[in-house]
């Protein structure tokens, strides 16, 4: 087991890399084109070169086709400058990628052959295509592909043990911290906290988990490493340091900053408008009340319930049915079982003259009280998201929130079962 000392983050990371290359005969870096994975890649290349281990290293990248030009330029520079011993694992495959920019589509496919005439850009010089993988299915998501790729590469290299290096930092979010160092996660390699087991003899590792954002930029400056110049443009545009994201532009995580494309990369923006339905609307309203704030407005001749029904009628049947099922479940839940609300929310209901019942016990570990009630049109409350209103449903639809997170939903049983079956199918491959 590797022992952590109290050196600086650079020294600690080099010790972690020493441990990884000692324990694993097959290593690859998951490279997104962002600042964190870029620094991790440079650190790993430096270590492997100094130790004469470049032939044990690969660089994995999912190319999403539609992205900032500076990101593409940076990724191109990285792969063109890789030592010949390092394996190029740049993937251009038509996976199902979630989108929150369209009311008509829940996903889109980069590099989809049938839409070649509206591709945002051409394929890179060297890449792995769908034909290179025997495990891809039409329903495979980018997340599932990324996970399954590790096992495929492990088997392809006939490796004894494979380690996937990922540039996740705990500072980014509490969820990331839990992913990396959770005490409840027993699937660690030799009890090393910053590792996670993915398959037998295949592990993820997070060597820069304790780095700060400032450490990333200090390293780039000190060592003169190349980086995605998009961050410079973000800085000039006034984007806060911790809000700079190089995510897929149609993903929920990048939605609020989508409008920056028009100012920073107008040529790409023009192509993106036609690439995925709804991009222009999201760019205009993605960071405003129209995409989900409780202060959204409706046509004056509608109640919120009527407006919700109107929105549902404008959607394709499959999408509308998905929302209707969630609505039906939510109505039944609040009427029969009830949800938990704070004292403040309950007072807001009382002040508004809303009829409701307060239950006795609840299975939830909370000081809040269980409340049973019918759906209401709207309410002015700080806990607006927690109260069952038709307005909340309208917000969910306008946010293109297909899962229904705004209404308190998580994955459905069908979605969870589908994932379970996929994991079972690939478990012993």
From TrEMBL:
Where in this chain does the record put each Phosphoadenosine phosphosulphate reductase domain?
A: 27-235
Gene Ontology MF, one: transferase activity
Q: Which UniProt keywords apply?
A: Transferase
Q: Which InterPro entries does the annotation name?
A: DUF3440 (IPR021845), PAPS_reduct_dom (IPR002500), Rossmann-like_a/b/a_fold (IPR014729)
One Pfam family name is PAPS_reduct
The GO annotation for biological process reads: cellular response to oxygen levels
Q: What is this protein called?
A: Predicted phosphoadenosine phosphosulfate sulfurtransferase, contains C-terminal DUF3440 domain
